[in-house]
Amino acid sequence: MRITNNMMTAKAVWNLNQNLERLSEAQERASTQSKIQLPSDDPVVATRAIKYRNYVAKAEQYQKNVENAASWQEVTDSALSDLGDIIKRLKELTVQASSDTLSDSDKVAIQEEVGELKEQVVDVMNTSYAGRYIFAGYDTDEAPYAIESTAAGDKVTFKGQYLSLGGPTSTEVSESDFTDFCTSNADQMYQSEAAQTIKYNIGFGSQIAVNVEGQDVTGQGTGTNIFDSIDKLLLGLDGATSYQTAEIDNSADPATVTVETHDLNLDDVLTDLDADYERVLNARADLGARMNYVSMAKTRISNDVETYTTLMSNNEDVDVAEASIDLTSAEYVYEVSLTVGAKVIGKSLVDFLT
After folding, report:
1. Strand pairing partners for 20?
2. CA 254 to CA 266: how far, in whole Å?
3. CA 286 to chain centre
4. Which H or E run contains 262?
5. 254: preceding bond cis by omega (within 30 degrees)
6. 3 state SS of 261
7. How far apart are CA 81 and CA 87, in angstroms?
8. H, E, C per residue of 55-112
9. Rounded Cα gap, residues 315 and 46, in angstroms
10. What is the pLDDT of residue 82?
């Protein structure tokens, strides 16, 4: 077969293009540190890359969720600790108030402190994390607890409803006025509702409840919540020897209200505060178990992120030393092909006419 200059030139150009393409690919691998640039480069590697990247993205999101869950629970535990300290102080003041040696000024001082502690309980129960009220169930945008002045004295509301509508009330409020107050506000009496549990996804197929609901901490209903205990203590410090409560049946219209009068004994208040403190301890114990679970999940998901990141790197990333050698080799081959091509392409018939 006759070999012409055109054939040699075309072959040289083709080789140059091939070597240039290999050089370009080697440069791209070295600069991007990635084995493939397009799925078509290696479909198997590309398929695995998508799978591993999805795993890593999910694991990293779970990692963020775990950190948020842990922070929420830490804030909650701190608030419950503060509430426990307040109740312990209330118990101390109740014991002091039981003494017959207290002067009127001493009782006034204790009464003022108890009033401040009641407000502190409300403040603690309105604790927020990242702009969300942690004891409000699903209604995290609004502070759940408030103290409202009424015809029957100061009453605490929870999510806009009276936590203990017929709770301890001074006998200085007439029975008819107390009855009218309870009847007119019967539809605003807090009723037990379905659990409002806020859950975080903290792993592959794993969830954890992060919140503690306020009514489970303070208690609810007449005579079974911390605010009723405080109100009885305040009445006792004010010199009262009795108080009244109301049992409200709002199944009828109008509601049926039954008022009862009770003897006021500070020893009973101390017993109530013990029950309030026990309720807080139980809430902390339950929360503590969940905090331990989140701590273990944090370690597990951190290991998952590391594992999947390593798998993703092994699948996609080039060997740096190998990529460097490939690049050097491709550069050398291309330079040689340029030298050879220059000699071939530059030849013409004139070069042979001497």
Report:
1. none
2. 35
3. 17
4. strand 256-263
5. yes
6. strand
7. 10
8. HHHHHHHHHHHHHHHHHHHHHHHHHHHHHHHHHHHHHHHHHHHCCCCCCHHHHHHHHH
9. 9
10. 97
**Tokens at 325, concatenated:** 């050698």
> What is the pLDDT confidence band of residue 196, given thresholds at 50, 70 and 90?
very high
3-class secondary-structure state, position 241:
coil
Rg over CA atoms, the chain: 39
Q: Are 217 and 283 in contact (CB under 8 A)?
A: yes
Percent of the chain at pLDDT > 70 equals 80
Closest CA to 337 of 18, 26, 29, 25: 18
Compute the distance between CA of residue 289 and CA of residue 295 in angstroms, rounded to an integer.
10
β-bridge mates for residue 31, sequence order: none
Interatomic CA distance for residues 219 and 227, integer angstroms: 9
In whole angstroms, give the CA distance from residue 135 to residue 196. 10
Contacts of 77 (CB under 8 A, 6+ apart): 284, 287, 288, 291
Query: How does DSSP classify residue 189?
Result: B
Q: How far apart are CA 318 and CA 29, in angstroms?
A: 7
* Kind of pairing between the strands at 161-162 and 128-129: unpaired
CA distances for 143 relative to 119, 147, 224, 226, 347, angstroms = 14, 12, 22, 18, 90
Residues 53-106: tens digit of each pLDDT: 888 889 899 999 999 999 999 999 999 999 999 999 999 999 999 888 888 888
Contact present, 210 and 186 (Cβ < 8 Å): no
Which element (helix H / strand E) includes 116? helix 104-125
327 and 31 Cβ atoms separated by less than 8 Å: no
Given CA atoms 219, 221, 227, 229 in this order, what sign does their dihedral have? negative
Taking the C-alpha atoms of residue 12 and residue 344, their distance in angstroms, rounded to an integer, is 7
The mean of the pLDDT values for the chain is 86
Q: Which two tokens stand for residue 58?
A: 């999910």
